[in-house]
Amino acid sequence: MINPLQRPVLSVLTALGVLVLLTLGTWQVQRLQWKEELIATVETRRVSSPTPLTQLVADPARAVDVEYAPAQIVGQWGQGPSLFVTGTYEGAAGYYTFSPFRLADPLAGEGRLLVNRGFVPIDALPEDYQFDVPEGLVTLTGLVRTFDAETGLAAQMAPPPDEGKPIFYRRSQTDFTVAVGESLHPFYLDSLENPEPGAIPLGGTTRIEFSNNHLGYAITWYGLAFGLICVYIAVMRQNGDHSERD
After folding, report:
1. How confident is the model over 139-152, as a mean pLDDT?
2. Same domain, yes or no: 175 and 230
3. pTM for this one?
4. Residue 154 domain-assigned?
5. What are the residues whose beta carbons fall under 8 Å from the beta carbon of 225, sequence distance 6 or more?
6. Which of 17, 25, 100, 134 could be bridged to 78 by S-S, CB 3.0 to 4.6 A?
7. 145's torsion region: left (phi>0), alpha (psi -120 to 50) or beta?
8. Segments forming the whole domain that contains residue 152
9. Rounded-to-integer distance, Cα 17 and Cα 11, Å
10. Residue 102 and residue 164 in one domain
């Protein structure tokens, strides 16, 4: 039985617990609205007509505002090394190939543009880690993408790049900058096309997937708040019954 002096303490603790749980539930509802708007925005962007990159990204620092937007670039493939990031495509293990690209019409600010040329099956990776690139001026179409976050749990748990090899385990601007030996723009381009059918790397492999579990999380937090209230009421009623019998 609860001591009468403990009732105010229990009431305050219960109220605080319910307030915290309701706040978390409301935050997840807000996240749900934000995620649904983001998904709708990305779906609209990716089916739009390609825009010249210099027009789409007037300020490279704001590239995140146009992520997944189709862009067109004109220029030449650079002579720098290609970089390979581990990944899968349609259930097959392999690497995504990032190569430097020199824009004919440079963007504002300093930096080299990297292009994700597409997927390479693990058994198709050349021993010298290089693929031939077309010479001369080329036009490419792709989706604007931003690099992986440099902080957070995923960044901390990712293995470091393979020593002495251009193999990476995340799309890190910092790691890529060290490997290329010069500054990079804070975004890259996912190629949407192949030079020819069956060519390797395989372009057009961008997967647009967003986890959206916020509704489930909101229901969980609200459910816990309701459960806590029910427990509080039951305890108080039980305590009241004991008091009347006494």
Report:
1. 87
2. no
3. 0.74
4. yes
5. 17, 18, 21, 22, 25
6. 100
7. beta
8. 69-191
9. 10
10. yes
21 and 132 share a domain? no
Alpha helices in 5-131 (DSSP H): 7-46, 53-56
CA atoms within 13 A on the CB side of 164: 0
Q: Is the pLDDT of residue 201 over 70?
A: yes
CA 17 to CA 228: how far, in whole Å? 8
Whether 160 is covered by a domain: the verdict is yes
- Which of the pair, 159 or 94, is modelled with greater confidence? 94
The token pair at 198 is 């069956």
Burial string for 122-146 (b: 16+ CB within 10 Å, else e) reads: eeebeeeeebebeeeeeebbbbbbb
* Amino acid in position 196: E
Question: Per residue in 84-93, pLDDT tens?
Answer: 999 998 889 9
Q: Is the dihedral of CA 114, 67, 198, 49 positive or negative?
A: negative
